[in-house]
Fold this sequence. Notes:
The chain starts with 8 loop residues before the first helix and ends in a 12-residue tail after the last strand. The chain is built from 9 helices and 15 strands. By secondary structure, it is α+β, with helices and mostly antiparallel strands. The protein is elongated and about 115 Å long. Helix 6 (about 265-285) crosses helix 7. About 40% of the residues lie in helices and about 25% in strands. The protein has a 5-stranded antiparallel sheet with strand order 2-1-5-4-3, sandwiched between helices. Strands 6-15-14-11-12 form a 5-stranded antiparallel sheet, covered by helices on one side.
Amino acid sequence: MAAGEGASGPERDLRWRLDTQLEEIAAQLQELSRVKDRMQGLLDAVLSISRELELSEVLHRIVTTAMELVGARYGALGVLHRSGRSLEQFITAGLSDEERARLAGIDFPRGRGVLGHLIHHPEPLRVENIAAHPSSVGFPPGHPHMGTLLGVAVSVRGKIYGDLYLSERHDGRPFDREDEAVIVSLAAAAGIAIENARLYGSVRDSAEHFQRLLLPTLSDLSPFQGAAVYRPAADPGRLGGDWYDAILLPDNVCAAVIGDVLGHDLLAAAAMAQTRNMLRALLYDRRTPPSGIFRQLDDTLDAITDLPITTACLARIEAQGTGYRVHWSSAGHVAPLVIHPDGRTEYLDAEPGLPLGVDPGQHRPDHVRVLPAGSTLVLFTDGLVEHPSHSIDSGLDRLAELAGARPGLPLEDLVRTLVDNHPGEGHDDMAVLAVRTPSPGAGPDRVG
């Protein structure tokens, strides 16, 4: 006999009601589980966009995250012009390479049509048929078909920053109220992420500007040529202690120095400025070898300051016969690189000596090397070559290869090429200074 066949009418009704209630409870539990998963997805999405600090990355992450949350094929974020009447930037995602190729040459939307409706009426917008919307002005040639739209405004500090647009759910259904609620929540978090990215950029730019104010603009070194470049650390607020200087001394000798103060803060930046200014004064006042300048600098720093440890390399470049010579001393700094006119490179490896601020009484060595006319001396800080995934020797080899491939490159281009293609990790600030001796026939007698 089948279960329940002998049951009376009331019993069957009771069992039917129980089964129905159990099915309803099961359906409610499934719905709760689905909502929970979606809310977890929203939380993960908020955390995801909040991790980004570069504004361009934040904007792109907002679009792609919104697409994932509602299963949309296409997404875009239009950044409003300051006037608030049109779009000045349009970040898209979801377009295939073929679709992008078809839109090549077509300017991004400026905020007319349905997109403009959201600009002028910043309330959440759900459209089931874009073409039928009263504000629709159609699509440009080659634009992929889009029928549905979900748009929400993104605000920062109470001001509309832009609009987030989504189109075409993968399942073919129009966007619903639940999609709208999720994207509205994401847009609120997006505003915070955008504000954080703006703050990050402001702090980074201010730190970089402050750092550059402390660094010199190279004066005329004729008949030598000189160029320098500074690249700040990737992290905001990490003021660096990297510095450089190059001056033509009264005895027609070109003095070049590069240094790196320990630390990444205001103290390091202030110490860098003090050390550079003291060194420049000593260079003009003394005609001693570089080691003597370093000894005096170290004594002075020890007597009247409490500055961090500093590495540095100081070189005097002067005429000698038909060529030139470089007379240098190192205070624990990475060896300078020489690029010969034929592209051959060599590091001036020699006893480095102790960094400044360790023991002023220690002996400081001097070194001398002859340089052919047209040679380039490159001084740099270790951020250019240090990387946790390879040894510093490997970084030095890659830097020499890069420099040797461009022996005749103008110095401004050379130093930027070395920084743009550096083998270092990029999380430390970098400074590069290059000095080139006059080319053959330019006349060393003009120098000394």
